[in-house]
Each structure stands twice: as structure tokens, then as C-alpha cells.
Amino acid sequence: MPVISMFYGIIIRLFHFDNKRHNKPHIxxxxxxxxxxxxxxxxxxxxGSFPPKKLKLVQAWIEIHQDELMADWKLAVEGxxxxxxxxxx
Length: 89
Hints:
With about 90 residues, the protein is of the alpha+beta class.
């Protein structure tokens, strides 16, 4: 479960071979004790719970880095190494 980015206390991860359960390109996000799964294409939360203000930051970051996220997603589902993505600043 590689960490691909961190900002404002939020950790963003992509898991290898993780395309079965949600059937959509997604990331795993963590903030304090909260965790969620967020779709890359829409920013929609697919599972879990997350503070609304922090989710908005994640959604803004996804919008900025969508092409990079999709490239990383394709690598991750094949079990390949993914690249770090710049944090939200």
C-alpha cells in the first residue's frame, strides 16, 4: 500500500491489485482515525467516513492531479511501482 502523497495531515494511498471490490479507479485516504475510499474520476466517496472539509481538499487535489492518478492507478492494478504525486499546497 504505497503512499503516493501527504498534505494537511491527509495520507493518500494506492493499493496493488485493488480493482475488484469497488470496480472503479480509486484512492484510499486517511486522516487521524478516519479512512475512506474516493473515486478518482468523480471525487465521490465510495466507502468509509471522512471529515467534510478534508474531503474537499482531497477532491481538489484529485482534480489537479487526475491524469497522474490514472497513470498510477494503471500501474498499481498491475502490481507495479507507483510514482509520488505532489501534495496540495
